[in-house]
């Protein structure tokens, strides 16, 4: 009897141990579930997984990988929130020693592709821009550097243009306040050759010899003007030659080219310069509307309708600023 109880106790202990192991395994499996995002072929999907390898996750998601495709992960180890990005290889034409072949790559610069193919610096260099962004169908040439030299030359530093906003000037108005002059610098370059033929120059050092003086231009920033009707915003200011006319001028009917009744505040313009219907402000005259034309009103000419003959005669002909209101 005692022997039976002992055996039963052992069986019970073993069963409890197995249950505990199973519980720990299941708990660990559930605890390891994480949410990851997959970006591939222009699509994004978020999945839950317990796998710990990007290849396994992609396989479960039904995403196949080519021999030259690559995978990037946003974290060093896969964890909750990791983003897995699939980089698809694309064809690039590569010329080395006069022979051209097409290779598949995920490299996006000529230098990166050269390194990937084993043509590493300093013995090999892409003939063009090493940082050139590659895409499907791009072509690059990789040169074998057989000799080098160092040359020094003087070069002109082109004048830079600096623009400064000035709110005391009208919007659209500019003024050169400083004329620029070119500078001079000494440039030290490394010249690379392939079998005696120059293939590339690299700047090693630049030493200024004469400082470049920039051209400074002030740009008008003021876009509003105070009028008898309050502050008004404008988008352009034109300097125009102005004259005056009366309601009865022209055909004598007192009707403008747009059909409006001729009255103060109506002005005649060249529609190629100021479109009919444009609201204007002329200092000394007031707010107006471009609603009439005239045979002599061509280019930067404007005719202001006055109320009587005496006012028109006193106005005469003068230069005025015409504000094109917003």
TrEMBL record:
Residue span, G5 domain: 142-223
InterPro entries to which the protein is assigned, alphabetical: 3D_dom, DUF348, G5_dom, Resuscitation_pf_RpfB, RlpA-like_sf
Pfam name, any one: 3D
Keywords for this protein: Signal
Keyword Isomerase in record: no
Stated name of the protein: G5 domain-containing protein
